[in-house]
Design goal:
The structure holds two protein chains of two kinds. Chain A is mainly α. Helices cover about 75% and strands about 0% of the residues of chain A. Chain A has 16 helices and no strands. The longest helix of chain A has about 35 residues. In chain A, about 40% of the residues are buried. Chain B is of the alpha+beta class. Chain B folds into three domains: about 140 residues, Dipeptide-binding Protein, domain 1; about 140 residues, D-Maltodextrin-Binding Protein, domain 2; about 180 residues, Dipeptide-binding Protein, domain 3 (Roll). In chain B, the strands form ten sheets. Chain B has a six-stranded mixed sheet with strand order 20-28-19-27-25-26. Chain B starts with a helix and ends with a helix. Classes of the chains: A mainly alpha, B alpha+beta. The interface between A and B is large, with 65 and 76 residues.
C-alpha cells in the first residue's frame, strides 16, 4: 500500500508539472494579453506602461518567465497578483478560500447525505410513483440552467416572499457598527463546523467501542452529535460576535440551497442507478433468502456496495470545493475562489489565475489519491 | 433559531433606520475595491472602482471645475507664475512659483504646508512609481520641486507643455506626517516602491478632502465618513455664462474669480458640503443584484463607469421613485484604417468610406437612439475643446448622395470597376463589383475587424451596415465580427495585423490623446498611432498643441490638428454610447445629473462627493 501511495505521489508530481505548464502557456496565449490591455489605456504614457510591465516581471522572454514560475511554484510561491498588486497570490487565496469552503462544503455535504439517502430509498421503492416523481425532479434539477435556478430562488425567496437576503455575504448596515473583520467570523464558523465534525467522528468511534448493538450505537451517535451542535449554537448565541455569525449564515441560505439542489440531484441519480444494479446481484438475493430484515439488506448489503461511485463523486466534489462556483458566487455577490478565477482571467491577471487553477488542481489530484485509498478500505476486492 | 433570526432582523432594521436618519447615502458598486493605498491605486491598481471611494481623501494644487472642466486652483492660492527659463548645472529648465492656500487643514488637524507638496512630488518621482504616477510626473517634463517657504513651492520642468498643467500641477498630494515614517522604512528595503504600494490597508489616513475612509469590509462594503472640520465646507463655486468662475471660501476668507469677470448670467452654483455623515459603497458583483438593491431601496445609486445596461431600464421605470438619466459618455467608437497597407494608405479610399458612413441613420434609425452620433475625436460635451466648425464628410447628405460622393471621389482618384455602380432617379440600380485601383490591380477583400454582437451589439450592427454600404458601391469590405481580445491582439500584439478595425476609446477632458493617437513617432509596435498616420504637418501642429501652457492657444492648435485629421481620415469616428444611470429620488439628491460621462464622472476627481445629499437629511 505504501509503495502504491509513493508511486501515485510520483505520478501526481509529474502530472502537476504538466498541469502547471499547460495552465501557464494557455493563459499567456490568450489573445489580448496584459500588454494589450495596458496599450488600450490612453492615460498611460509608453514609459508608464513599461514601468508597470517591469513591475509585473513581464519584460523577460516567456520561457524564462515559465522557468522562474515553475521554480517559484515548487517553493510554494505563487507570485504577485497584478490586479491586487503587490499582494501575493497566497494572501488573496487565503482571503477568499474560507468564504468558498464554508459555502460549498456545507452545500456538498448536505447534497451528499440527502442525495445518498434519497437515491438509496428510491431504488428500493422502484416502480412506485414516488420514484418516478423524484427521478423526474432530480433530472430537472440536475440539468437546470444554473442562472435560471438562482434567479428564480432570488426572486421567490428574496423579492417575492422577502424572507432571505437577495445577495452579498453580509449586511453592511449591521457590520458598519463593528470593527470586526468578516474573515475572522468565517474562520470561526469553519472552526465550529470542523469541531462538530470531529465530535461526530469521536462519538462514532466511541459508539463502535461501547456497544455491538446497532440501535445503541445510533443513539450514542445521534445524541452526542446533537449535544455538539447545541453547544456550538449556544456558544454563538451568547458570544458578542454571534450576531455576525448568524448574519453570514443567514446570507448563506439561498446560495447553499442553490448549490445543494444542483449537486443533490447528481448524487441521488448516481446512487439510485448504482443501487438498481446492485440489488440485482446474487448476494442480495442470498441476504433476502437468509431472512434478513429489508432495512438491513438495503443499508448493510446493497447500499454499502452501491456507494462506491457515489463516494468517487463526493470525494471529487470535495476536491473541487476549493474552486468554488463562478455562477453561484457572481449571482449571489459572494466573492470567493470562483469569482477570483473569473475576475483574474478577465483582467489578464496571470499569476492569480494560474494560482487559483493550480491550487484547485493540487486539491483535485489529491482527491484522486484519496479515492484510490478509500476504495481499498471500502471494497475488499481491491488490493494494491 | 427562529427567535434568533427575528432578533437579527429587528437589529438590522433598527440599524437601517438609524443609518437613514443620520444622513447616509448608499451606493452600489459592481466590483470590489482592491486597494486604498494611493501609491498602488495610481500605479498598477488604477481602476474606477478604486477611484470612486479612494480618491476622496486627496488633493492637488490644481484641478478642474465641475461641469465646465476649467483648470482652477485647488490647494494652490491663485494661478502659477509664468514659466521662466533658467540654467542649472548646464541644464536648461523652466521654473514656476506656486503659492499655497494658508489655513487648510488635514482631517487630523495638521496644517497643510509646502512640506506635504514637496513630499508628494518627490516620493513617487524618486522611487519611479509606475502607472499614473509616471504619467503625471513624466520624467521628460518634470525635473524637481523646491520648498521656498511653508506656503510657496518652485516647480522646475524641462519644457513648457500641457502635461505640465494636466500632469505635474494636478499630481496627487498626500500628508507627509502620515507617510514619511513609512517612506523611511521603505528606503531600507530592496524595493522601496513595492513596499510603499503594499502598505495597508490604509484606513483612517488623514484626509484633505471631504471624507475619510475608516471602514473597509473587503468584498462587501466601504464607509466614507464626512470630515467635520473640512476646510472647504461652505465654499461657493459659481460658474458664469461668460466663462468666468468664482470661488468663495468662507473659512479662508477667500473670494477669487478666474477666466473673466463675475458678472452676468450664472450657469451653475454649487455650495460645497459634505451634506451627509457618511457614504456607504456596497459591493454587488453583478448589475442584476445592484438593480435589485436599487429597486428595494437598499442603495440610492449605482456607480458604474460603463453605465447601466439598457435592458434594465424598463424594469426600473416601473418604480416611481427611480429616475433614469442619460448622458453622453466620454469616449468614442471608431474605425481605423491601416495606412501601412493599400488601399487604406490612399486618402481617396478613406474619404470614400468616410462619405459612406451615415451616422445619423445608423444611430437614430438602425440602432434606434441607443447610440449618439459623433464625428470628431473631441465630443461636443467637452465644450472648451470641441470644434463646432468641423464638417465631416457627407454631413447632411442622404444615403444616395453619399454613394454618389464616394463614387466621385474614387473615380477622381483613378479607381474603376469591373461592374460600375449605377444610380438612377435617386436609387441604386446596380451594385458595383470588382473595384480596380488606379494602377490597374483588382482590390482584394478588405477585412474590417469589429467586436461581435455578444460583446457589443452596437458595433457589430454598425460593422454590418458599413460593409453593406461599401459593398453597394463595389468596395470589397467584409465585416469580421470577432472577440474584443482578438482585435486588441491583432492591433497591438501582432504588430498591426489588420486592414480596418473597429474599437472604442475612453478619453480625457484635456485632449492630448489627439497627438498620442496620430503622432508619427507613436506608430511603432505597441504604439497608440495604430493607423500608422504619418503627416509632418500634423506632427508639428500636435507638438505646438501639447507644448502650450496657455490653454486658449492650445485650443487653437487642437482645432488645427482636428481639421487635418478630418481631412485625412485616419479614423472615422462613428458614435458614442449614452451613459445610462439610475438613482432613487426618495433617497438621494445630486447637485447635477447632466454631465459628460454621467453622474459617476463626478465621483472620480470632481466635486459631486461633497455635494450629494440624503433626501431625508436635505428636507
Amino acid at each position: 500500500m505504501i509503495k502504491y501511495i509513493g508511486n501515485r505521489l510520483a505520478q501526481i508530481l509529474i502530472l502537476l508539472v504538466i498541469y502547471v505548464a499547460v495552465v501557464f502557456f494557455l493563459l499567456h496565449s490568450m489573445p489580448g494579453g496584459i500588454e494589450a490591455v495596458l496599450a488600450t489605456n490612453p492615460n498611460l504614457t509608453p514609459a508608464a506602461r513599461e514601468s508597470i510591465l517591469k513591475a509585473f516581471g513581464l519584460t523577460q522572454p516567456l520561457p524564462v518567465q515559465f522557468v522562474l514560475y515553475l521554480k517559484n511554484i515548487f517553493t510554494f510561491n505563487l507570485g504577485i497578483s497584478y490586479s491586487f498588486y503587490p499582494t501575493p497570490v497566497w494572501t488573496i487565496i487565503a482571503r477568499r478560500l474560507p468564504r468558498t469552503i464554508l459555502l460549498f462544503t456545507t452545500a456538498t455535504l448536505i447534497a451528499f447525505f440527502v442525495g445518498f439517502a434519497s437515491g438509496k430509498s428510491l431504488a428500493w421503492k422502484r416502480g412506485k410513483t414516488s420514484e418516478y416523481v423524484s427521478t423526474v425532479v432530480g433530472v430537472i434539477a440536475y440539468t437546470v440552467f444554473t442562472p435560471l435556478l438562482i434567479f428564480t430562488l432570488i426572486w421567490f425567496f428574496g423579492s417575492y416572499l422577502g424572507i432571505f437576503p437577495l445577495n452579498q455575504f453580509l449586511n453592511p448596515d449591521l457590520w458598519i457598527r463593528t470593527n470586526l473583520n468578516a474573515q475572522t467570523i468565517f474562520l470561526y464558523l469553519l472552526l465550529t463546523i470542523s469541531l462538530i465534525g470531529l465530535a461526530m467522528l469521536a462519538s462514532f468511534a466511541i459508539a463502535q467501542k461501547v456497544s455491538h448493538r446497532v440501535k445503541t450505537r445510533k443513539i450514542i451517535f445521534y445524541i452526542s452529535t446533537a449535544i455538539a451542535i447545541a453547544l456550538a449554537v449556544f456558544w454563538w448565541a451568547v458570544s458578542p460576535v454571534g450576531i455576525y455569525g448568524f448574519d453570514i449564515l443567514w446570507h448563506m441560505i439561498l446560495p447553499v440551497m442553490a448549490v445543494t439542489i444542483i449537486s443533490y440531484a447528481g448524487t441521488m441519480l448516481v446512487m439510485r442507478d448504482s443501487m438498481l444494479e446492485t440489488i440485482k446481484e446474487d448476494f442480495i438475493t442470498t441476504a433476502r433468502a437468509k431472512g434478513l430484515p429489508d432495512k438491513v439488506v438495503r443499508d448493510k448489503h446493497a447500499a454499502r456496495t452501491a456507494m462506491l461511485p457515489v463516494i468517487t463523486n463526493f470525494v471529487l466534489s470535495m476536491g473541487f470545493v476549493v474552486s468554488g462556483g463562478v455562477i453561484t458566487e457572481t449571482l449571489f455577490s459572494w466573492p470567493g475562489m470562483g469569482m477570483t478565477l473569473l475576475d483574474s482571467v478577465l483582467a489578464k491577471d496571470y499569476p492569480l489565475a494560474s494560482g487559483a487553477l493550480i491550487f484547485t488542481g493540487i486539491f483535485v489530484l489529491f482527491a484522486h489519491l484519496v479515492i484510490d485509498i478509500v476504495y481499498a478500505f471500502l471494497d475488499p476486492r481491491i488490493r494494491y | 433559531m427562529r427567535k434568533v433570526s427575528m432578533l437579527v432582523l429587528v437589529v438590522v432594521v433598527a440599524l437601517g433606520v438609524l443609518t437613514l436618519g443620520a444622513g447616509v447615502v448608499n451606493y452600489a458598486m459592481l466590483s470590489g475595491v482592491t486597494t486604498l493605498n494611493i501609491w498602488s491605486m495610481l500605479g498598477p491598481n488604477a481602476t474606477a472602482w478604486n477611484f470612486y471611494p479612494g480618491l476622496v481623501k486627496y488633493g492637488s494644487l490644481y484641478g478642474q471645475s465641475d461641469l465646465t472642466y476649467q483648470v482652477v486652483p485647488n490647494l494652490a492660492d491663485g494661478f502659477w507664475t509664468p514659466l521662466k527659463k533658467v540654467t542649472e548645472n548646464g541644464k536648461t529648465l523652466y521654473v514656476t512659483t506656486v503659492k499655497l492656500l494658508k489655513g487648510v487643514k488635514w482631517s487630523d488637524g495638521t496644517p497643510f504646508t509646502a512640506d506635504d507638496v514637496v513630499f508628494s512630488y518627490e516620493v513617487p518621482f524618486k522611487l519611479g512609481m509606475p502607472g499614473n504616477w509616471k504619467s503625471a510626473l513624466d520624467p521628460t517634463v518634470f525635473d524637481k520641486i523646491v520648498k521656498v517657504d511653508n506656503y510657496t513651492v518652485k516647480i522646475y520642468i524641462h519644457k513648457p507643455s500641457g502635461k505640465f498643467i494636466f500632469g505635474v500641477l494636478m499630481s496627487t498630494i498626500v500628508q507627509k506626517k502620515y507617510w514619511e515614517p513609512i517612506y523611511e522604512k521603505a528606503l531600507k528595503t530592496k524595493d522601496p516602491s513595492k513596499y510603499m504600494m503594499s502598505y495597508g490597508p490604509v484606513l483612517n489616513e488623514p484626509s484633505i478632502g471631504a471624507f475619510t475612509l475608516p471602514k473597509w469590509q473587503k468584498g462587501a462594503f466601504l464607509e466614507a465618513k464626512a470630515v467635520p472640520n473640512y476646510t472647504f465646507k461652505g465654499q461657493e463655486e459659481i460658474e458664469y455664462a461668460n466663462g468666468a468662475i468664482r470661488y468663495v471660501i468662507p473659512k479662508l476668507n477667500k473670494d477669487d474669480t478666474y477666466y473673466g469677470k463675475a458678472e452676468g448670467k450664472i450657469d451653475h452654483k454649487f455650495v460645497t458640503g459634505p451634506y451627509v455623515d457618511s457614504i456607504v459603497y456596497k459591493i454587488y458583483q453583478n448589475q442584476s443584484a445592484a438593480v435589485s438593491a436599487l429597486l428595494k431601496g437598499t442603495v440610492g445609486f449605482i456607480l458604474n463607469p460603463n453605465g447601466m445596461q439598457k435592458g434594465f431600464v424598463a424594469q426600473l421605470k416601473t418604480n416611481p421613485n427611480i429616475k433614469i438619466v442619460s448622458n453622453p459618455s466620454l469616449g468614442f467608437r471608431y474605425i481605423a484604417f491601416n495606412m501601412r497597407r493599400y488601399p487604406m494608405s490612399d486618402r481617396a479610399f478613406r474619404v470614400a468610406v468616410a462619405y459612406l458612413v451615415d451616422r445619423n441613420m445608423l444611430c437614430n434609425k438602425i440602432l434606434q437612439g441607443v447610440a449618439i452620433p459623433l464625428s470628431t475625436v473631441v465630443p461636443p460635451g467637452n465644450k472648451f475643446w470641441y470644434d463646432p466648425n468641423i464638417k465631416p464628410y457627407g454631413a447632411g447628405m442622404t444615403t444616395i448622395q453619399r454613394y454618389e460622393a464616394a463614387i466621385k471621389v474614387l473615380k477622381d482618384a483613378g479607381y474603376t470597376w469591373l461592374v460600375p455602380p449605377k444610380i438612377k432617379n435617386g436609387h441604386l440600380v446596380q451594385r458595383g463589383m470588382g473595384l480596380i485601383a488606379p494602377d490597374g490591380k483588382l482590390i482584394k477583400q478588405i477585412k474590417m475587424m469589429a467586436p461581435s454582437a455578444g460583446y457589443d451589439p452596437m458595433r457589430a450592427t454598425a460593422a454590418l451596415w458599413i460593409e453593406k454600404w461599401a459593398n453597394d458601391i463595389g468596395i470589397p469590405i467584409v465585416a469580421d465580427l470577432t472577440s474584443f481580445n482578438n482585435i486588441v491582439s491583432a492591433v497591438w500584439s501582432e504588430n498591426f495585423n489588420f486592414d480596418i478595425y473597429m474599437l472604442g476609446w475612453g478619453i480625457t477632458i484635456y485632449p492630448d490623446y489627439i497627438r498620442d493617437f496620430f503622432y508619427s513617432k507613436n506608430a511603432g509596435p505597441g504604439g497608440f498611432n495604430t493607423p500608422g498616420y504619418d503627416n509632418p504637418e500634423f506632427d508639428k501642429v500636435a507638438d505646438e498643441f501639447v507644448d502650450q501652457t496657455n490653454m486658449d492657444k492650445a485650443r487653437e492648435y487642437a482645432f488645427k490638428a482636428e481639421e487635418i485629421l478630418n481631412k485625412d481620415v485616419p479614423y472615422v469616428v462613428l458614435f458614442t454610447s449614452p451613459m445610462l444611470e439610475a438613482y432613487r429620488t426618495d433617497k438621494i439628491e445630486f447637485a447635477y445629473t447632466k454631465a459628460l460621462d454621467g453622474i459617476q464622472s463626478g465621483y472620480s476627481g470632481y466635486g459631486e462627493t461633497s455635494l450629494v445629499k440624503a433626501v431625508e437629511y436635505a428636507k
